[in-house]
Amino acid sequence: MKRLVIVLLFLAVLLLDMCIAIAWSNGIEKRFERQAKRQTYQAVIIFFGDFTSDYKAIGDETTRRLNKALEYQSKRAKTTFICVGGSRPKHGAKGSEIMAAYLIKHGIDKQNIIVDASSFDTRGNLEDSFTILEDKDWRDIGLVSSSIHLYRIEKIISSMNHDSSMKFSYLPYLYKAAIPPISLFKRWKAINYEWVSYFLYAMPE
Question: What pLDDT, on a 0 to 100 scale, did the predictor assign at position 17?
């Protein structure tokens, strides 16, 4: 009987965690969606998400982000797409280069793509991106990732030194419209991963 009670309590905690996680991420998604009013940007930064298990191709999460970014190609204004992250020297893999190949395959001119092949984490992605933005003197920037990752990105940017004239728009793919689709379980896992990453970042050194 005691074991059954423990199991039920454990399941109740998991269910509560899932409900809170989904509600929180829906709120973040809606906030970013309201704020992102522009349709064209000087640059759109796409953050790497994942590889396939053999490190030879991008995974579903990265693909969702790239498909969202493709919405911002425009015939009216030139937008440069900056692919950042995914450096895995141990596996001989550079995720950002595979991301660039995906964009080219889907109609983006190679000349409108910049690849950062050296960074491997979110802070490094941003540091390298700021170097590119400052060099190009770009001020109107779109940031593409999942809503929960963009939440962490927003907090990191607020703590970094960068040109205050830069304007960032946070452009999450919508979970209900994600291509490829994402299951509720995978979404829940991703949210908890972001929570852990955020709290580790927020902890004093």
Answer: 87
